[in-house]
User: Fold this.
Amino acid sequence: MGYKLTRGTLLAIFAVMIVVPVLVVLLGTFKSMQQLFDSPFGVPQSWSIRNYVEVLTQHNMSQAFLNSTVVTTSSVFLTLFVSSMAAYGIARLRGWKSILIFGFLVIGMSVPAQANMIPQYVLFGRLGLLNNLLGLILINVVTGIPVSTFIMGSFMKTLPHEMFEAAEVDGVGPARAYYRIALPLSGPSIAAAAIFLFVIQWNELLYPLLFIQSPDKQTIPLRLLAFQGEFLTNYPLLFTGVAIASIPITIAYVLLQRYFVEGMTSGAVKG
Assistant:
């Protein structure tokens, strides 16, 4: 009884810590600067969407939203395409080859992004990919491949080898087995990797800050910095930008929540 009470209390405290800041942000989008400082936790005196209109029309947020959509969707699709094939190859390999390739993936995840910034900047400059959305897509794909391959590879390793051996006896080649067997059965892990990549790449700030200079090429996280001044931050507009930026992530997670949970736990359950 005491354990259940303690667990319930901790969960309630955790829920309050999550819900209260979210409510402050959402309510703050309908307030002026003065109203926000006078009553940060209170209900707006008058509900107005002027902050949303100003953010979308006067602060280039619509273009930033479009840029983020193009970069993120392209990056996620290409990363899943490459990673699913790599995960299938690792799952079908046995012995030291599989362990060696998996070790390279772990090394790729362990190297911090900041350690590669200077050589990446020099390389992208020589390739003409600075201040270019294609450069952001490529760097997102390269940095996303290790973790997405790790997620999908862990799942594909649980698929019965007998099924692929039977398909091989029937004359099904590796490419067709990947497309007709591995991909359909790996749907939960693909969805889990897709949500993980979407959240990370949608909120990515480091590489846009490093590679992008033109305002019309900025993504949403980079554009939100415009609301923060040296001496004053326009919190109502900042909160509004954050609320707008959170819409795609919320929709994606609600639609794919079941697959996300199943994909993250299936490897442990089947293993």
About this structure: The chain has one domain: 60-234+244-270.
